[in-house]
Amino acid sequence: MGAITIFSYNWSYLLPEFTVLGFATVLSLLDLFLGKHVKRSLIGWLSLIGILLAGYFVIHNVMTVKDPVSYMADMFRVDHFGNAFKLIFLGGMAFTLLLSLANNRDNDEVSHQSEYYYLLLTGLLGAMVMASSADMITLFVGLELLSLSSYVLVGLRKQSIQSNESAMKYVVSGGIATAVTLFGMSYLYGLTGATNLFEISQRVTEAYSSGYSFLVILSFVFIVAGLAFKISVVPNHLWTPDVYQGAPTPVTAFLAVVSKAAGFALVFRFLFTAYIGLVGPNGERVFMSEMSWYLSIIAGLSMIIGNTMALRQTNVKRMMAYSGVAQAGYLLVPFVTLTQLFFEQSLFYLFAYLLVSFGAFAVIMIVTKDQKTEDIKAFAGLYHRAPFVAIAMTFFLLSLAGIPISAGFFGKFYLFMSAIFHSSYVLSGIMIATSVISYFYYFGFIRQMYMRPGLTEAKLKVPGTAGVVIVIAVLATIVFGIVPGVALDFLHTHFNPNFDFGGMQMPSK
């Protein structure tokens, strides 16, 4: 690519990525010149300013970009899909930074705070690249940028054996998942001779009809198996409880929401662009006839295993890890049903999950630091020590369980209705049964907070930035649980509900 070609692009649409990259670079250099007496929380606050500025640029793109803007031979795209996920990433990162500022103020967990903050920014940049990539090369670069940053963040508590063990398990599991993903990509490249997803979508039908149908399906299976690691679903979910337990709580929240949302963005972009238009010799849609059942099995097993394993946990972070596996299983349901509203349904569920996850992890961080234990018994008597915190946690748990008057209820309701509409009665039954199972461990928190005496009656101190996260999360959870149409109307208006992932319209059934 020559200099003339580079300068011919209108790079202003990439200001969100440039902003995050610029702040990560400048803050890493600024850290070298700051004296030891300067608190590194300054880096955290400056990072938050960068996130807000990047958010402004994304919103500007949402309001101004009507048709996709392509860069570098369509390797990178600015479109409705990418902008929607970037808003989720940036919102999650803002919450992560607020929790981090509260968690790191005593300097007892993470000693290298400057590195901590700009590693979060580089991880965010990787997620944003994944959301806008339309080529296997740039997708993989974004995936690895997010993954490498996450590996280091998990192991930043260098004095903690548990943290070191979690980081090692994360690196090994991530390396295996990366190898499996690349193996699937290599098959896809060999079959089509292209790395661009839109070129692949045009050539994969020819490969399928030319006697290579088994290899096309095999590439899909390997890619999904590798990406299952990033969204923490069966069969690549076993790393989740150990990593969630060993990482600092804000990093756990980051992995549970931002990293998982980035994984789903990759699944959206990759699978639906490359495979959704695949047509068999008889004109049948191969994705619906031969591929969706694979996703159905993963979704069902994730819901069952995630919820049943959560029943056995007493460590709250491990419990939330298995809950996250189950939630990812729920999120795979619209990928199987593929109704016209699947994009809106998925985004609404991710938005609701972002709110309740960060709110719940904020409460978990405050309580476990105060009680010096991550056992669920740390929540005993919380209502008497901090009534608002206990009530907020109750709403977060109700939303995760899918109880009415919460955003999570409508998120699950829309997914359930899409499964019914698609006649996926087995998935519908699993959703209902596993949701009932989840009540047992979610209500375990409530039993401890309201019905068990605590070791102390002293008022619980809530750090200001963590309190902001809790207030925003609980208010939004209640509001969108009462009027979910507001969020859905916003998605319908500003993000093309008929987004076709490269010219292939979504089937209605």
Automatic annotation (TrEMBL):
Q: State the EC number(s).
A: 7.1.1.-
GO CC list = plasma membrane
Q: Name one GO biological process term.
A: ATP synthesis coupled electron transport
Q: What is its main location?
A: membrane
Could you tell me which PANTHER family the record lists for this protein? Answer: NADH DEHYDROGENASE (PTHR22773)
- Protein's job: NDH-1 shuttles electrons from NADH, via FMN and iron-sulfur (Fe-S) centers, to quinones in the respiratory chain. The immediate electron acceptor for the enzyme in this species is believed to be a menaquinone. Couples the redox reaction to proton translocation (for every two electrons transferred, four hydrogen ions are translocated across the cytoplasmic membrane), and thus conserves the redox energy in a proton gradient.
Protein's name according to its UniProt entry: NADH-quinone oxidoreductase subunit N
Gene label:
nuoN
